Amino acid sequence: MAEEANAALGELIPYLARLLNKELSDALRPLGLSPAQYDVLEFIWSEGATSPKIVIERRAVEPSSVSGTLSRLERDGFVTRIPDPDDRRSLLVKPTERAIALEAPARAAVLAVLTKVTQGWADRSVDLFIRAVRRAIQQLERP
């Protein structure tokens, strides 16, 4: 049974990730954002000006991915790089006024997609799903 369940998870989790990415892409495209850009902006909106290194650590993504995403965000006018007041050799990224204006509509677009995932579910089912996902993440984050 465990082997069959794990095989099913091996198919279902990547499929769910692809479906979510497509839905999020469709929802964010009118705002000029991709899911990866939203993920970085969401962190910056929450944390304020921060170093790319912190984004990489907290989002658990490859440095080259964050670097490319930040470059696109800067090119498109969503973030700007500023000197780190604590270390003049380093730069921080901060949201521009354009990005700040998009925060509420972008969060609403993402929430609409995530709400669609659990539409019609009982509160208990949503809670169990969230706990299961958190536990899976914890399992994978262990050294």
TrEMBL record:
Name assigned to this protein: HTH marR-type domain-containing protein
Keywords: DNA-binding, Transcription, Transcription regulation
Gene3D superfamilies membership: Winged helix-like DNA-binding domain superfamily/Winged helix DNA-binding domain (1.10.10.10)
Domain HTH marR-type: 6-138
Pfam short name (any one): MarR
GO molecular function, one term: DNA binding
Entry-linked InterPro entries: HTH_MarR-typ, Tscrpt_reg_MarR-type_CS, WH-like_DNA-bd_sf, WH_DNA-bd_sf
